[in-house]
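The freezer alarm interrupted the setup, so I double-checked each line after restarting. Inputs confirmed:
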Amino acid sequence: MYSEKVMEHFSNPRNAGVIENADGIGEVGNPVCGDMMAFYIKVKDDKLTDVKFKTFGCVAAIAVSNIVSEMAKGKTLQEAKSITKKTVAKALDGLPKEKMHCSNLGAKALAEAIKDYEKKKYG
Amino acid sequence: MKRVYLDHASATPVREEVIEAMLPYFDRHFGNPSTVYDMGIKIKQVIEEQRAKVAKLISAKQQEIIFTSSGAEANNLAIKGVALARQKKGKHIIISAIEHHSVLNSARFFERMDFEVTFLPVDEYGLVDPGRLSRAIRSDTILVSIMHANNEIGTIQPISELSAICRDKGVLFHTDAVASVGNISVDVNALNVDLLSLSGVSIGAPKGIGVLYFRNNLRLMPLIHGGIQESGRRGGTENVPGIVGLGKASELALSELTDKIDYLQELRNLLVAGIQERIESVKLTGHPDRRLPGHASFCIEAIEGEALIYMLNQEGICANTGSACASKALKTSPVLVAIGTPPDLAQGSIVFTMDSSNKIEEIEYVLEKLCLAVEKLRSLSPLWRREEGK
Amino acid sequence: MKFVEKQPADDTLDLVCRMCPLHLLEPGDKLKCLKKGQVLEVLTDYDGALEDIPEWCQKYGQEFMGIEEDEDCYKLYIKKVK
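Predicted 3D structure, all chains:
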């Protein structure tokens, strides 16, 4: 069902964790539905210097979380905002149809974290 | 990597003796049992011999056995066959809320044809209350279907109590015994049922063969009209190798049952105790005592079932889950919902079903890998809070 | 067509819901278990049986006694002669 890339990210979620005093936090999803992601970001000079996540969810949800964190880390905020469910799914060599919503959730969680940072910074 | 298989509810390995019994019926005795030459007649006799063996497994009479393609087909034939044959008498069917989809959807099919279906709720252990069943039966009730044991939570229903209520009120009683046959004693007379489904897949027979037991020549509308196979109750050239396999598997299942029950209970108790000791915040689902001997099912807090199954799979362990993500439709298991499991906890469902082929050393291996997997997934989970110092 | 009413029978063969050619195969088997002079009651909802069974009786030398219509099926009566 899952590509090798998905399995690799699932088995090695390198950026799992929490950032104390994060600059932005984004929480999406609902354990009742089976997926929940929390993204933590650190921003300096408009760049994402660190991205971590905590995820409750299936193989796809965990893989998506890790790849989103890796795609976003080191990028500018503008570049990070262009990460969409399609770019995530592509980066994972595709996801089963019924799991596409996970890639959407991952992109959304990151976007929420960025929004949270911008709200804190600019009000 | 070694494989540790703990999903016998989904399928059981076919034993060597069963395969050996089946083989000649592929190329040597390959004829159609409906033909009139020697080969056909001989094969027809063999089929009847297997019928007797299956009947013996459940203490039925030989002529009360219909061979089908699966447990699902047997369930369909029971529900639809009775409903279509008896619709002039009434159009009310009662089933439990935790039936297999083949019973659930067969009953729902009749809702489109002006039938009414009552779904009996179950308690926190998955048990149907006999009082509730009694109150649900009406003058137009023609069939009650309640499964003997549930695959997902292992709970065994008080079938003889439930069927007695139906017998008293003149209502036919069907039980889906796919999960129970071969794992506990199943005697159609002791259970006092009118119809019973079983599947080869649960007792070491090949896939593609099942049985519907029907008491005393009761009227059933056939679903597959054809020739004279199964006395006109189920058309289609018989799956002879499958039938032979099922006959042999039934013989083995009957002779090995007592020892199997004891052994499976030992393995299961080891696994359950191990999980409860080593992993915190887990809930055993189903009844603690009235459950299938080799069945251990849990909901594990703060993690998701599919992820857990995949992690175990990476260690060669095959187990199952009722989590929403693992189902293609992304719906939480209706069984877990019916027993009142909170929806987020229901995501962390894992089901282990053992068989005589499992060894004690495998249980220890599973415990070790399960603990590691749960620890890893909980370290990723935003829902898992550890108190300091723990 | 001969009609009968409240014909007593020594055994019943219920073929309701089951179709051709069971109504031609099973009565013969059931009659084997009866003694001469005993009566077999055959229940069927298959219209073709109304013609087929009397013809079968004639062919195999058994006595076709008649038919009674019931609520949901026909009841045909065969007396074992040989």
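Quick read of the result. Chain C has one domain: 11-79.
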